[in-house]
Write a structure and sequence with these properties.
Blueprint lengths: L1 H30 L1 H14 L12 E3 L7 H6 L3 E7 L5 E7 L5 E6 L4 E6 L16 E6 L7
Antiparallel strand pairs: 1-5, 2-3, 3-4, 5-6
Length: about 150
């Protein structure tokens, strides 16, 4: 039960960051498009490239329609659904297996979602015994961590 709670806290933090990102971008873009472009340029200089980040070697792409064997193994203990929408956005729903709680993430075109699994040693064939080394990360269309 404690592991499920930890996983849900991680999901909640992930969604809070995503929500803040999307809401700040939407508000800035609707109020003043020139200001939004300036903010995006400033933000790009402060972003971390996913490919050179410390988590990249432990990350497995899960937003594609086909998952690698490593991505499937990293998702042990999670259920993931992928629903393409008409506008090119992909709706990803992540839940802890056996739990009714879930988290939905909207991926704009070009964005990618990765599962981070730092240690496969704690995973069984279809279950996760320690959620503390797992997480999810969003990468924008330019390859930067969001």
């Amino acid at each position: 039960m404690q592991k499920i709670i930890i996983a849900l806290v991680i999901f909640a933090a992930f969604v809070a960051v995503l929500s803040a990102f999307y809401l700040s971008g939407a508000a800035a873009g609707s109020a003043n498009p020139g200001h939004a472009a300036q903010q995006q340029q400033q933000a790009a200089s402060n972003k971390t490239a996913f490919a050179t980040s410390q988590i990249a070697p432990y990350s497995y792409l899960v937003s594609n329609s086909t998952l690698s064997p490593q991505a499937r193994a990293a998702l042990a203990g999670y259920t993931l659904t992928r629903k393409p929408l008409q506008n090119g956005t992909v709706e990803m729903t992540i839940s802890v297996t056996g739990s009714s709680a879930n988290q939905t993430v909207m991926l704009p075109p070009g964005y990618r979602l990765y599962v981070v699994e730092t240690s496969f040693g704690d995973d069984g064939y279809s279950y996760e015994s320690s959620y503390s080394d797992d997480g999810f990360v969003l990468v924008d269309q330019n390859g930067y961590l969001v």
